[in-house]
Amino acid sequence: MTTQSDLAIAEDYATNARYQRPWYWYDWANSAFVTTTATVLFGPYLTSVATEAACPGLAEGADCTTDLNVLGLPIDPGSLHPYTVGLSTFVGALLLIFVGAIADRTKRPARLMALFAGIGAVAASAMFLVEGTNWGLGVLLLMVASIALGASLVVYDAILVRIAHPDDRDKVSSRGWALGYLGGGILLAVNFLMLSNADALGGTGQAVRISMLMAGLWWGLFTLIPVLGMWQMRGVERPVVAARAGVLGGTFRQLKDTFRHLLGLRQTLLFLVAYMFFNDGIQTVIGQSSLYGTAELGFSETTMLTLFLMVQFVAFGGALLFGQVARRLGAWRTVLGGIGMWVLVIIAAYFVPEKALAALFALGVGIGLVMGGTQALSRSMYSQLVPRDREAEFFSLYQALERGTSWFGAVIFGVVHQLTDSYRPAILALIVFFVLGGVLLAKVDMPRGIREAGNEVPAVV
């Protein structure tokens, strides 16, 4: 029997469907920073700046045996970037939970998303100023940009629940991810040409800095499309907690209520724990792959840019392919298959010989196929397990895990390198995250969890 509430929800989906097209564009906007800066260029660049600070005038190919002094702690220059990623994601995990509570009390979510995206884009653009031995500025800007990105994605992901019917979310989420990979790939192609002609721009370092500036500007300018397109979209009409509590007091009360509610949604909680593990592995592979390729396998930054350019366009097709598979088999089975593929990718990465170009690019094809699909479908799966009118608070937990628990994988990666002076054991250790995540995800009863959250069960789960 169709209730008045069901009719109202169906009307909301029909009304808000027009926001899907502008919504896609935020994936396009922020993926330039994620791809060009966070994934490809900044890790090796920050490492080179830190190495110059620790070992001035070090000959090319020589090992730096001097540690940096970071707040009184000795830090290997080669481990600075993984540690920075770990710290920024840990701090972000704490802050994003508050962002979600505030976002659900915001009547115009696109405007809040614009604020966070603007802060991130400014920090990303300012990375142009990192040069010489100024690794401290690089660490600060990376932390600000990463946390701001996570905050904007809390709002962005929560909007998915309001603009797409449960039967359409795998498709809508996959299209967003695919467009993101396409946008990131286009800018990466431009950056590749720049680095290939670095001498004309004043050297490799200058070309890298200009590329990072372009990524920040791309993020900020293209964010205008979803922000203006969804400017009038309304959020939750009623606050979850009493208005008398005020913004700060109401936020804390809402957080308390959110965690109490989450504990009652056992399947949602189990999914989050599973996601915490396998996403930790994904984020660490993505974040440290450029460093692995340059420092361990001996490839140049130009070669790694070529690889990631290829991966971006393969991932574009991979995200759409996984979306199509999910329509037939369901997102749950498709993601489990994707996790198995990730394990094979990690094993293959461990055995790639130094300077083996063909093996490196074969590995890149495997990463591209599985990367976008597992992330896009994880987002749409979780959206089914989120109670209505609590989207942002619950997606803040999702983002806290996506960008906040990957600190463990990044720190493990850095620690293993510091202990073994090799990135191969570090990359192999990541298998445990995928195995644990896959085992826990296999235990999630999606139909039951969707019903517990009070949502409509899609035709195919």
From TrEMBL:
GO MF annotation terms: transmembrane transporter activity
Listed name of the protein: MFS transporter
InterPro entries xrefs:
Atg22-like, ATG22/LtaA_families, MFS_dom, MFS_trans_sf
**SUPFAM superfamilies reported for this sequence:** MFS general substrate transporter
Give residue ranges for domain Major facilitator superfamily (MFS) profile.
268-461
Sorted alphabetically, the Gene Ontology cellular component annotations on this record are: plasma membrane
User: Gene3D superfamilies, alphabetically?
Assistant: MFS general substrate transporter like domains (1.20.1250.20)
Q: Give the stretches traversing the membrane.
A: 83-103, 110-129, 135-156, 177-195, 207-228, 263-282, 302-322, 334-352, 358-377, 397-416, 422-442
Superkingdom assignment? Bacteria
Cellular location of this protein?
Answer: Cell membrane
UniProt-listed PROSITE patterns: MFS (PS50850)
Keywords assigned = Membrane, Transmembrane, Transmembrane helix, Transport
The membrane topology noted for this protein in its Swiss-Prot or TrEMBL record is:
Multi-pass membrane protein
Entries under PANTHER family matching the protein: AUTOPHAGY-RELATED PROTEIN 22 (PTHR23519)
